[in-house]
Amino acid sequence: MGPTQETCSELLRPLRALMGLKQIALQRGHFTTDQVPYAAAGLLAELVFRGECRASDLAHHRVVDASVVSRQVGQLEQAGLITRRPDPDDRRVSMLRATPRGEQAVAELERRKAEWLSEALVGWDDERVRELADLLGAAMDDVRRHTIDAMSPATASGSGPGKTTDAPAEAGGSNAEGAR
């Protein structure tokens, strides 16, 4: 059986507060650098953690329209943070990859986020933080799976389960800040 709607409603309050704090941190510059356009930072992190992939795979995994990914890919490519090459299996499609400069930019963003969290959670020990990371990671994996399955054409037509993918750290996995 799963949790009741009432219990899940209790979870919504701290999740909303967390998202609000993310916005404050963004406004104060904790989650940005001059190198990476904020709107495309999550996509860049996805490429760093996931590795080379197609734009359509990024759109599917991030649960956004392909036009959003296309615009962000253009920004990142212009900034020299990603490269593209023809997919050897289908030359009409590009494979995207973070450049060393893109990888360094994500490492700097992750360092800044971790520093911010470390300062904010100064009263917590590593074990408690790991427990929270594990719980949030597991919850986000299930929410992502449910969301992607619900959007899958195979599931919508009733012909079978949808395809899911594991979330990279920045995309909601348990080994990063989880809010992109």
Structure overview:
The protein has helices at residues 5-27, 38-50, 55-62, 66-78, 100-120, 126-151, 153-156; strands spanning 53-54, 82-87, 90-98. The chain has 180 residues and is mainly alpha-helical. It has a 3-stranded antiparallel sheet with strand order 1-3-2.
Element order, helices and strands? HHEHHEEHHH
Distance between the termini: 31 Å
Number of helices: 7
For the secondary structure, the number of strands is: 3
Q: What's the oligomerization state?
A: single chain
Structural class: mainly alpha
How would you characterize the largest beta sheet? 3 strands, antiparallel
Beta content comes to 5-15%
| Helical proportion, percent range | 55-70%
Mean pLDDT: 81
Strand order in the sheet with the most strands:
1-3-2
Q: What's the alpha carbon Rg, rounded to whole Å?
A: 18 Å
Shape: globular
Poorly predicted runs are: 155-180
Question: How are the secondary structure elements laid out?
Answer:
Elements: H1 5-27, H2 38-50, E1 53-54, H3 55-62, H4 66-78, E2 82-87, E3 90-98, H5 100-120, H6 126-151, H7 153-156
Antiparallel strand pairs: 1-3, 2-3
Helix pairs in contact: 2-4, 3-4
Quick gist of this model?
This protein has helices spanning 5-27, 38-50, 55-62, 66-78, 100-120, 126-151, 153-156, and strands at 53-54, 82-87, 90-98. With 180 residues, it is mainly α.
Note the main attributes of this structure.
7 helices, mainly alpha, globular
